């Protein structure tokens, strides 16, 4: 029996003058412990103990899963909030004078809205338009389209009489369907002009204003210059006759306005709530009640924060435990496989080869845990969202990032065991037996 | 590798283990092994046989003295260079076989190609040829644990020749084998030697030692030619 030729290959070609360096470094050229080889060895190293692998990855699985669930729920909840988010409600604010109970139990206003309140608040950032509203006290006086009181005519409920500043229509996002709203000039001159809400106009039988119809408050005529509609914030305006504040003060002795409507920029709610009372009365801003929306992002943030703190901490703790688990098992594996390490060194493995083998094993275990954890997390979010009839929103890069985080945990966990493995002396390791 | 140079050249090699107490396992050893030499090493337990083999196999460094392997002065090499030289020049056979229990016979043999840079396309044919060569072509997919001691040691021999080494170092390769299988394994070694490999066998067995062309004795770290 002869040794096959291929086993003798090396001995035939070596020339007498072969350079030392070339000889020593010859192995580095060819297929020496390539990454493919490394991965094959790693897969055998990991595949050996399936039960142990499951236990090892458990902590990482739980950690990554809870992170994905946390972020997934936060994103889903944020999606819910923005879906329900009402753009109109978010851009409207109301300021009212504060009130207190008097000795005999009546509500009394503790402050008054100044007549120039719209000018004051419109100077603020985030306030787009503002308008005052006041109820005009007219008692039993009828508001009618005809001055003659016809006793045979059926009793109709007369519309309420309101006074507003010129900016109110825009402040409540109303619209003039005919004619126009009154302006600052009408207000200043106390002109006897009126604007009628769409429903009140219908009841009064007024549908066009180009003929300058009149409306009577008691005996006093007011020229109707416009019909307004679409005031969702104050639907009572639709049933009202509206006159300029200046007119109401001159004709009916209006004492004060009851509220200030503001149209604000999206997200400016908190700012306006803080600054509007100061603008109205720098000395006693606390005497005003402000209803301003919390901004959408504020809502989302608070929801996210609620979920994040609890689950995020749990997730990080689980992840830490997972990392320690991987480190522990890899360390165990190193000491169990001391003989194997010695054998590999005898076969020509360098310290670095040994280190990379255990390192990659640890990374792969971590990545495996990360992938499983991310899948479990996505499944949990989708399942809960379906039950709650929410739309599950999960960011794909976030999920991939979470899975990769598992690999990072493995990397960190493997560093110490890999270092330890690489420092085992081959002689001592070989004595340990495989 | 310089073919004119001896495979192994030890000059005044001393290996001492710092104590306390300090143990001088090898004392000023001079040894030359040429291409195709067949050398047995005998000596009482604790005399320094394994230490000598570890130095020869680049698993250990002399504390004092020079070691040339195939003409290369090994003392000047760094760890990675020594690993590379070891992978390509030396094949080990151990008393306890050192086969990975969870890998097939074929995988165990292929393991020797990983670190020695055997081109990928040559690995499988070589491993199969080597296993055929040791008479285990029909056991390639077996697990080592299912093999007899003699078969396991033949797998180890197949693995040792995978990277086409110049020198086979065997530390009591028949220590765990019975008389008959010992003979078979030694026959295998001698065939390799006949092909030109240098062979160093540590043994307690008089019969095994007697088969070698050359025999040296170590006593208390000192080498004497028999
Ligand atoms: N790593 C070590 N540290 C300290 N002493 C050692 C070490 N390795 C071997 N020795 C000592 O060196 C001597 C030779 O050991 P060894 O070469 O294993 O003997 P053999 O193989 O001939 O039985 C013994 O006395 C042993 O105790
Ligand atoms: Mg020994």
List the helices and strands and how they pair.
The complex is a heterodimer of chains A (434) and B (226).
Chain A (H helix, E strand, L loop, with lengths): L8 H5 L6 H6 L9 H13 L2 H35 L7 E6 L1 E3 L5 E3 L7 H6 L4 E9 L7 E2 L15 E5 L3 H4 L3 E5 L4 H6 L3 E5 H7 L9 E4 L2 E10 L10 E5 H8 L6 E6 L4 H12 L7 E4 L4 H41 L1 H9 L4 H38 L7 H27 L3 H6 L3
Parallel strand pairs in A: 6-11, 8-10
Antiparallel strand pairs in A: 1-12, 1-13, 2-3, 4-6, 4-12, 5-9, 7-10, 8-11, 9-10
Helix pairs in contact in A: 3-13, 4-11, 4-13, 4-14, 11-13, 11-14, 13-14
Chain B lengths: L7 E10 L5 E11 L4 E5 L6 H8 L7 E6 L2 E2 L5 H11 E5 L10 H10 L5 H14 L15 H13 L5 E5 L7 H16 L3 E5 L3 H5 L3 E6 L2 E4 L1
Parallel strand pairs in B: 3-8, 3-9, 6-7, 7-8
Antiparallel strand pairs in B: 1-2, 1-4, 4-5, 9-10
Helix pairs in contact in B: 3-4, 3-5, 4-5, 5-6
Bound molecules: adenosine-5'-diphosphate and magnesium ion (MG).
Describe this structure in words.
The complex is a heterodimer of chains A (434) and B (226). Chain A is α+β, with helices and mostly antiparallel strands and 434 residues long. Chain A folds into two domains: 34-84 and 299-432, no CATH class; 112-283, no CATH class. Chain A has helices at 9-13, 20-25, 35-47, 50-84, 117-122, 168-171, 184-189, 198-204, 245-252, 269-280, 296-336, 338-346, 351-388, 396-422, 426-431; strands at residues 92-97, 99-101, 107-109, 127-135, 143-144, 160-164, 175-179, 193-197, 214-217, 220-229, 240-244, 259-264, 288-291. In chain A, the strands form two sheets. In chain A, strands 1, 4, 5, 6, 7, 8, 9, 10, 11, 12 and 13 form an eleven-stranded mixed beta sheet that branches. In chain A, helix 11 (296-336) runs parallel beside helix 14 (396-422). Chain A is rod-shaped, with a radius of gyration of 40 Å. Chain B has 226 residues and is an alpha/beta fold. Chain B has one domain: Rossmann fold (3-Layer(aba) Sandwich). Chain B is 34% helix and 26% strand. Chain B is built from seven helices and ten strands. Chain B has helices at 49-56, 79-89, 105-114, 120-133, 149-161, 179-194, 206-210; strands at 8-17, 23-33, 38-42, 64-69, 72-73, 90-94, 167-171, 198-202, 214-219, 222-225. Chain B has a six-stranded mixed beta sheet, with helices on both faces. Chain B has a four-stranded antiparallel beta sheet with strand order 2-1-4-5, covered by helices on one side. In chain B, helix 3 crosses helix 4 (120-133) and helix 4 packs antiparallel against helix 5 (149-161). The longest helix of chain B is centred in the last third of the chain and has 16 residues, at 179-194. Chains A and B meet through helix 1, helix 2, helix 3, helix 12 and helix 13 of A and strand 5, helix 2, helix 3 and helix 4 of B. Bound molecules: adenosine-5'-diphosphate (ADP) and magnesium ion. Residues 17, 23, 25, 43, 45-51 of chain B line the site of adenosine-5'-diphosphate. Chain B: This is ABC transporter ATP-binding protein. Chain B: Residues 8-226 form the ABC transporter domain. Chain B: It holds the Pfam family ABC_tran. Chain B: GO terms for molecular function: ATP binding. Chain B: Keywords: ATP-binding, Nucleotide-binding, Transport. Chain A: Residues 54-266 form the MacB-like periplasmic core domain.
């Amino acid at each position: 029996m002869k040794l096959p030729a291929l086993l003798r290959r090396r001995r035939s070609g070596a020339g007498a003058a072969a350079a030392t360096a070339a000889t020593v470094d010859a192995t580095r050229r060819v297929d020496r412990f390539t990454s493919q080889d490394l991965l094959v060895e790693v897969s055998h190293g990991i595949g050996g103990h399936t039960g142990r692998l499951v236990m090892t990855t458990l902590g990482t699985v739980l950690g990554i899963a809870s992170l994905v669930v946390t972020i997934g729920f936060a994103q889903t909840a944020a999606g819910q909030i923005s879906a329900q988010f009402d753009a109109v409600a978010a851009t409207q604010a109301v300021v009212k004078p504060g009130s207190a109970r008097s000795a005999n139990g009546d509500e009394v206003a503790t402050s008054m809205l100044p007549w120039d309140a719209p000018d004051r608040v419109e100077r603020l950032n985030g306030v787009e338009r503002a308008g005052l509203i006041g109820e005009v006290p007219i008692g039993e006086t009828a508001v009618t389209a005809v001055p003659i009181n016809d006793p045979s005519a059926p009793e109709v409920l007369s519309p309420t009489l309101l006074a507003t500043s010129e900016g109110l229509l825009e402040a409540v996002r109303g619209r003039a369907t005919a004619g126009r709203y009154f302006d600052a000039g009408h207000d200043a001159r106390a002109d006897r002009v009126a604007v009628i809400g769409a429903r009140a106009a219908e009841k009064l039988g007024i549908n066009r204003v180009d003929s300058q119809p009149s409306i009577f408050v008691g005996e006093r005529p007011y020229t109707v210059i416009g019909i307004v509609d679409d005031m969702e914030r104050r639907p009572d305006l639709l049933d009202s006759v509206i006159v300029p504040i200046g007119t109401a003060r001159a004709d009916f002795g209006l004492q004060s306005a009851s509220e200030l409507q503001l149209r604000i920029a999206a997200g400016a709610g908190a700012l306006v709530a803080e600054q509007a009372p100061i603008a109205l009365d720098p000395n006693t801003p606390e005497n005003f009640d402000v209803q301003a929306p919390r901004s959408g992002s504020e809502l989302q943030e608070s929801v996210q924060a609620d979920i994040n703190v609890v689950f995020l901490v749990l997730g990080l703790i689980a992840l830490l435990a997972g990392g320690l688990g991987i480190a522990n098992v890899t360390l165990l594996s190193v000491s169990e496989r001391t003989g194997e390490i010695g054998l590999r060194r005898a076969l020509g493995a360098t310290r670095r080869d040994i280190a990379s083998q255990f390192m990659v094993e640890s990374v792969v275990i971590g990545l495996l845990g990360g992938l499983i954890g991310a899948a479990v997390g996505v499944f949990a979010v989708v399942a809960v969202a379906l039950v709650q009839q929410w739309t599950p929103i999960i960011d794909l890069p976030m999920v991939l990032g979470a899975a990769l985080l598992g690999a990072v945990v493995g990397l960190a966990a493997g560093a110490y065991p890999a270092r330890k493995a690489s420092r085992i002396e081959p002689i001592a390791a070989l004595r340990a037996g495989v | 590798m310089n073919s004119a140079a001896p495979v192994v050249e030890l000059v005044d090699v001393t290996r001492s283990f710092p104590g306390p107490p300090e143990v001088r396992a090898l004392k000023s050893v001079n040894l030359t092994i040429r291409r195709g030499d067949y050398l047995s090493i005998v000596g009482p337990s604790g005399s320094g046989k394994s230490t000598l083999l570890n130095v020869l196999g680049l698993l250990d460094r002399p504390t004092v003295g020079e070691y040339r392997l195939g003409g290369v002065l090994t003392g000047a090499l760094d760890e990675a260079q020594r690993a590379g030289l070891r992978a390509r020049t030396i094949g080990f056979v151990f008393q306890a076989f050192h086969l990975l229990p969870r890998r097939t016979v074929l995988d165990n043999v292929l393991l020797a190609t990983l670190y020695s840079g055997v081109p990928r396309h040559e690995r499988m044919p070589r491993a199969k040829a080597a296993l055929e060569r040791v008479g285990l072509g029909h056991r390639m997919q077996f697990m080592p644990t299912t093999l007899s001691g003699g078969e396991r040691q033949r797998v180890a021999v197949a693995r040792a020749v995978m990277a086409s080494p110049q020198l086979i170092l065997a530390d009591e390769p028949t220590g765990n084998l019975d008389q008959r299988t010992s003979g078979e394994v030694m026959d295998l070694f001698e065939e390799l030697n006949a092909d030109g490999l240098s062979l160093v066998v540590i043994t307690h067995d008089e019969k095994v030692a007697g088969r070698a062309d050359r025999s040296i004795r170590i006593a208390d770290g000192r080498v004497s030619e028999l």
